[in-house]
Specification:
The protein has a domain of 249 residues: Rossmann fold, CATH 3.40.50. Helices cover 40% and strands 17% of the residues. It has a 7-stranded mixed sheet with strand order 1-4-5-15-10-11-14, sandwiched between helices. It has a 4-stranded parallel sheet with strand order 8-7-6-9, with helices on both faces. The chain has a two-stranded antiparallel ribbon with strand order 2-3. The protein is globular and about 60 Å long. The protein starts with 5 loop residues before the first strand and ends with a helix. Bound molecules: pyridoxal-5'-phosphate. The site of pyridoxal-5'-phosphate (PLP) has 19 residues, from helix 12. One of its GO terms (molecular function) is pyridoxal phosphate binding. It is an enzyme of class 4 (lyase). Keywords: Amino-acid biosynthesis, Aromatic amino acid biosynthesis, Lyase, Pyridoxal phosphate, Tryptophan biosynthesis.
């Protein structure tokens, strides 16, 4: 058996700044449009749903954004996360390739989402907000926001996609454990939810519907704002803590990655992983960025690149992205976190500019890989994360065939200990 190589950083080595790729990307993002007027949105308009510091982070082109002390203190509870060499997997594949994974399952709720829920709660708190309303697909975002709300004294209300609510009751427990309130969506608590249920009582829900419900609630309340767990520029910004740590960890072992992989739902763990490597890529280094998504929700591989809403009701700004259409309801796959019709504008643009490649895998093949990985590496991956593992294995086998000595790194976005029903 191979030696277990783990690259740790000390708490003092947690990066003190997030990296803003907008400062370096060789293109401008197409601006978000007002969903009613189709005019370019002004930052002030975003202030209806987000607090000012986050609106500022959404549009700034400053290269490094200082992480507030209060946020660093909370990060230090679970960060830096380990970079682990998948020696057993390498041996199993009999490949000359080195495979590393950045393990985000060490967070309080078991996924990378606390990297952004903590700063989001912090910035809302200092802006005088009392309640955050959000949606959650598989429940990871809801539990991450609930945890952050607890840390900064905010009420958290979560609209959870009904299929996941039924399939993943433990996620609801987790949200409640941290003091958040959960409502299955579509619900009778909003006009939009009622309208959907009038048409189809059995509607399984979708992220788009849940976002619509959450926004309706925000617009009807005082001192309430909305929080989004993926897609937006400021979310990807917060997630760059992942890639920045990976860079430091690779420096420690004098290694550089050739292929960087993440699973893709809305683009936050992928963006957070790859964006800090944009300067290297732009300077001509041959680094491959790879997005892995489910065949049943093939946003980047089969979606259209155009303006679309982030939600079903059409309340969110129109954003230029790869989309399967805002009314797309993905099949009930276990990788609930990857059931989103759209993508982050930054990720979409990278794909469109051929700086990012994308592949799609079936549920069967990713579960086979997840089982193999659990047995070899001793970590049960979230069904979402197993898409990234599948991508890494395919890349490793390709390099083996071509006799290339590559270094592959992927982000293991979360553990699957609350997804064991999916495994069974
Ligand atoms: C939410 C989630 C995802 C997908 O979201 P992204 O924004 O694409 O990162 C992937 N993995 C896990 C474990 C998640 O919780």
């Amino acid at each position: 058996m191979g030696r277990r190589e783990r690259v740790y950083l000390s708490v003092e080595e947690i990066p003190k700044y997030w990296y803003n790729a907008l400062a370096d990307l060789p293109f401008q993002l197409d601006p978000p449009l007002n969903p009613q007027t189709k005019e370019i949105m002004k930052p002030e308009e975003l202030s209806a749903i987000f607090p000012d510091p986050l609106v500022e982070q959404e549009v700034t082109t400053e290269r490094f954004i200082k992480i507030p002390e209060e946020v660093l203190k909370e990060y230090a509870i679970f960060r830096p996360s380990p970079l682990i060499r998948a020696t057993n997997l390498e041996e199993y594949l009999e490949t000359p390739v080195k495979i590393y994974y950045k393990y985000e399952g060490v967070s309080p709720t078991g996924s990378h989402k606390t990297n952004t829920s903590i700063p989001q709660a912090y910035y809302n708190k200092i802006s005088g907000i009392e309640t955050l309303v959000t949606e959650t697909g598989a429940g990871q975002w809801g539990s991450a926001l609930s945890y952050a709300g607890l840390k900064f004294g905010l009420n958290i209300e979560v609209y959870m996609v009904k299929t996941s609510f039924e399939q993943k009751p433990m996620r609801k427990c987790l949200i409640n454990l941290f003091g958040g309130k959960v409502t299955p969506s579509p619900s009778l608590e909003t006009n939009f939810g009622k309208k959907i249920l009038d048409i189809d009582k059995e509607n399984p829900g979708s992220l788009g519907i849940a976002i619509s419900e959450a926004l309706e609630v925000v617009f009807s309340r005082n001192k309430a704002k909305y929080a989004l767990g993926s897609v937006l520029n400021h979310v990807l910004l917060h997630q760059t803590i992942i890639g920045l740590e990976i860079k430091k960890q690779f420096e420690k072992i004098n290694e550089k990655p050739d292929v960087i992989i993440g699973c893709h739902g809305g683009g936050s763990n992928l963006g957070g992983t790859i964006l800090p490597f944009i300067p290297e890529k732009l300077s001509g280094k041959n680094i491959k960025f790879l997005a892995c998504e489910p065949k049943s929700c093939p946003t980047l591989t089969e979606g259209e690149y155009r303006y679309d809403n982030g939600d079903t009701a059409g309340l969110t700004p129109l954003m230029k992205m790869y989309t399967l259409g805002k009314d797309f309801i993905p099949p009930k796959i276990h990788a609930g976190g990857l059931r989103y019709h759209g993508s982050a504008p930054i990720i979409a643009k990278l794909k469109h500019e051929n700086m990012l490649e994308a592949v799609a895998f079936t549920q069967d093949e990713t579960f086979e890989v997840a089982n193999l990985f659990a047995k070899l590496e001793g970590i049960i991956p979230a069904p979402e994360s197993s898409h990234a593992i599948t991508g890494a294995i395919k890349e490793a086998l390709k390099a083996k065939k071509n006799k290339e000595e590559k270094v592959i790194v992927f982000t293991l976005s979360g553990h699957g200990l609350l997804d064991l029903t999916a495994y069974s």
